[in-house]
Amino acid sequence: MYSHWARFAVFVFCLTAPLSIAIAESDTGKNNPANLVGHGGPIKAIAISGDGKTVLTGSFDYSAILWQLDNTTTNKLARRYSEHEGAINTVTFIGQNSRFLSAGDDGGVYLWDRASDNLLMQFKGHQAKVLSLAVSDDGKLAASASWDRTVRLWDLDNLKPLAILKGHKGPVNAVLISGAGQQVYSGSYDGSIIKWSVKTGRQERPLYLHGWGINVMKWLPGKQQILFGTVNGDVQIFDLKADSIAKVLIPHQRPVLALAVSGDGKFLASGGGDGLIRVWNTADWSVVEELNLSFGPVWSMVFSADNKKIYYTGLDDYAVAWKISPRKIGQEVQGKFPRRFQKLQNMSLGERQFARKCSICHTLKAGDQNRAGPSLFKIFGRPAGTLKGYKYSPGLLKSKIVWNEKTIDQLFAIGPQHVTPGSKMPLQKISEKNKRQALIRFLKANTQ
């Protein structure tokens, strides 16, 4: 049912950008103390607390991380949360930042308590990945947007599900809640922004119909204007009172994947599959900064509390702190290209299978950190679920499998859902026997 949208997502993930404005070529990102380094895979989501002292990130490595910001020297990894069973696509703080939400490919909406570091609730109900979360100003209501074409509402006080908002004809990519908490606004791949009543759980009316899919939405201060980005690269502002488009900004050449609005509303930024970040001054709508990452895409970004930095995320395993005021040309960084999971022309058949199927989740060598999955160092002969330091799913902890040529071949021949049911492994197969054998040869040569 969702194969079309899945193909689109993979297409965007592998985009490269055209001509650059400020090109970042060095691989110094992990050595910059201002960057947020600690994830084992590309970071898909980022949010900043209301006081500007804490950042929350969510990654393809299935984990969320809280960071304590130090504006003078380094940023500190404060806590890692690894209970997700899929990539994390969206995170948001709640109220006075004592709680937060995360959601992603496993379809669950996770509610966390910062004081105890406990998972308070995993809300279930979505039948596909969740792309966006919103919370009411009073912290009592949450909304989640999913590729199952619905928005679901959640009671954060009583920890129970509320209405299911149905009406979109395509995956729902973005959701917002009004200032008073009485309306919900959702944006979909079907090109529409719909207004919903929280009280009735019903559609009030289609607010706006764009010719292309809506990818992302943000409130401007006052919550009377919606900033949105689209599949064809448009960046526009819809005014609720005027019931019309109030501003059309310079479009991107490829899909807009990220938007950010500074806390005081003086600046906004757009980021796309073209790798371009564009920063606007909302007083006169002038472009004050542009950065082209050259290898794209930009998944998410936030302004620092003082508007001097933008923390952005892309294909690297860390979030980059881009200093925009005062701008220092050449200080932007980006990791090596192509990334480990992107195709290289000089790869052997086995290495190519590893890059495509395994590398985003697994490492190979002794001392390598775990990613979404455990390190594969000395995988042959290892009983499943036994590597120290990795939090396995119940399915693998109960498994009696010992990894060898036969069991690894079976894993990719019939799929993890049959070999390791209940595990966090992505549902993927390698149908061609020669490719499976090549992968096994590569693993044996590189994991001992």
Description:
InterPro entries: Cyt_c-like_dom (IPR009056), Cyt_c-like_dom_sf (IPR036909), Cyt_c_1A/1B (IPR002327), WD40/YVTN_repeat-like_dom_sf (IPR015943), WD40_PAC1 (IPR020472), WD40_repeat_CS (IPR019775), WD40_repeat_dom_sf (IPR036322), WD40_rpt (IPR001680). GO terms for molecular function: electron transfer activity; heme binding; metal ion binding. This is Cytochrome c domain-containing protein. Pfam families: WD40. Keywords: Electron transport, Heme, Iron, Metal-binding, Repeat, Transport, WD repeat. Helix content is 12%, strand content 36%. It has two domains: 321 residues, Methylamine Dehydrogenase, Chain H; 98 residues, Cytochrome c-like domain (Cytochrome Bc1 Complex, Chain D, domain 2). The protein is built from six helices and 28 strands. The N terminus is likely disordered. The strands form seven sheets. It has a four-stranded antiparallel sheet, with no helix packed on it. Strands 2-3-4-5 form a four-stranded antiparallel sheet, with no helix packed on it. It is globular and about 65 Å long. Strand 23 and strand 24 form a beta hairpin. It starts with a helix and ends with a helix. By secondary structure, the chain is mostly beta strands.
